Amino acid sequence: MTHSDSITLSLDLKASELVFPLENFIRYGFAKITGQHEAQIFTATYRPKTAVCPVCGVMKEARKVRAYSTSEVLLTPSGHRPRVLELTKAKYDCADCGGTFTPTPYFVVPRANISSSVKAAILLDFKVKMSMRDVARRYFVSPAFCWKILDQIPPKQRFRHLQKSSVLMNSKPLKMTTMVYADGLTHDILDILESRKHADLISYFLNFPRSERLKVKTIVMDMNASYPALLAIFPNAQLVIDGFHVIQQLSRAFNQLRVKEMKELKKLKGDNGKAYRKLSNTGDSCSSGTARSIIKTVSNSRFSGVNGGRRAEVIDALLSYSQKLQEAYMVYQNALDTFSNKQAEDFFEVIETLPESLPDAFKKSCRYLLKHKSAIRRGILSPYSNGPLGGKNNLCKLIKCIAFGFGRFDHLRKQILLQQILSKAN
Ligand SMILES: [Zn+2]
């Protein structure tokens, strides 16, 4: 290996006919392109033996050099120090067409001064959950440059394939208006839509050919009102409401009642008031503190099996103060039990036979589930779950959070999709 080839290799470049001087091919200094950062500056000359004239396309050896021009090229950094190649390029005369041209090595686009290896490194960094600002700082480029790279790649929805048997949909992963949908089997996010308005959803999915839409057999979703209309464009699909959302609806109803009851309890003077304060001041080693949060954790972690004796005690104490809460708790627990045992009919029976004494708001929230009876029944029995998509939602939120928000929805969408593609690649 020649002297120049070894240096080329150490710069993460392939053999590319760069010629480095035998001495002083590297120095530390400030380059125009890296500004205030002291850089390792390499000096090299590029004078390829055979060059193709871009105008007439003639390939020739030993052309006459007309002049030399020098420019800086940013390379991938070494540790925390930027590396710059001070590249002197030969300018050739073309005897065939009379023009002049300056060949550039493979890692630089003509007239660019950031090498393609930096671009590739930035692209690969989309795999890591990192904000664009940090990626830019790592490679000594501007964030705008990174966004430009992101803009150049096209993870556009091609509207060709939808051959999956099931589609999971989830609203509000990022903000109130967004919707994400994923493959039911692999749980890969297929796309993120900025709007989940009825008309927008319809026009979006109509982009898929009918033959693809016919293949969709199951659509798993939450209880969003605009979704049932989608069935019109997926004629073979069945709507399934995911169990998670059913439980969420119930636990929300129960929690609202609990908060209301606790407020009532707080207002009471005398012993009950004291009891409330006692309960809400109860310290608990396994939870963050107040009775309120304990009960919340318990009601939320119903399926996770966390049920310390201390918590059960607090719940019992709390329930004993309010008849309504006790009744609602029974309904809630029965519903959860039947649901987790996949007893669809029993579940609906619990909801249909609510005790009259329960507050109207609670009854209303529970009865709302009856509107989607058949979809919920399928949800209880079907193997599909929106749970994995919930995990993806968290990933989306994390990416958004790390970046301190995104100026453009398009960028966020691309970054999430790219992240998914790249992390799957290895
Ligand atoms: Zn020519």
UniProtKB/TrEMBL annotation:
Superkingdom field: Bacteria
UniProt domain Transposase IS204/IS1001/IS1096/IS1165 DDE: residue ranges: 177-416
InterPro entries in UniProt: Transpos_ISL3 (IPR047951), Transposase_DDE (IPR002560)
Listed Pfam families: DDE_Tnp_ISL3
Matches recorded under PANTHER family: TRANSPOSASE FOR INSERTION SEQUENCE ELEMENT IS1557
Protein name: ISL3 family transposase
Organism listed in the record: Lactococcus ileimucosae
Classification lineage: Bacteria, Bacillati, Bacillota, Bacilli, Lactobacillales
